[in-house]
Design brief:
Layout lengths: L2 H12 L3 E2 H8 L5 H14 L2 E4 L8 E4 L1 H8 L29
Antiparallel strand pairs: 1-3, 2-3
Helix pairs in contact: 1-2, 2-3
Length: 102
């Protein structure tokens, strides 16, 4: 967990739901909305945040989960809640000959 993750979770615990832009604006977190959005995705993969996907052109909304609340309370160690890596899309996998296997 980074300092930015802590600030995101603290803000989400004080509101019901928020977009990445709202979090960045209200917390004064340096960096752009995309950085906050990426950190929210990591927190969602770790189970600390729920993502509510909205229509095209609208930002997704994020809400803190029970795991996120327990992390803020100090009941959960962040090292135990690591996100699982996503499977690579088929077009991003290197062919066998790339590594000399084919």
């Amino acid at each position: 967990m980074t300092h930015t993750d802590d600030r995101i979770l603290e803000y989400l615990s004080s509101v019901s739901t928020a977009t990445a832009w709202e979090i960045a604006y209200e917390q004064g977190i340096e960096g752009d909305r995309r950085r906050i959005e990426n950190r929210c995705r990591v927190l969602a993969n770790a189970g600390c945040v729920d993502v509510y996907f909205r229509d095209v052109g609208l930002d997704d909304e994020y809400e803190i989960t029970g795991w996120g609340e327990m992390y803020l309370d100090g009941d959960v160690d962040a090292e135990l809640r690591r996100p699982l890596p996503a499977v690579r899309p088929p077009d991003k996998v290197r062919p066998g000959w790339w590594a000399g296997f084919g």
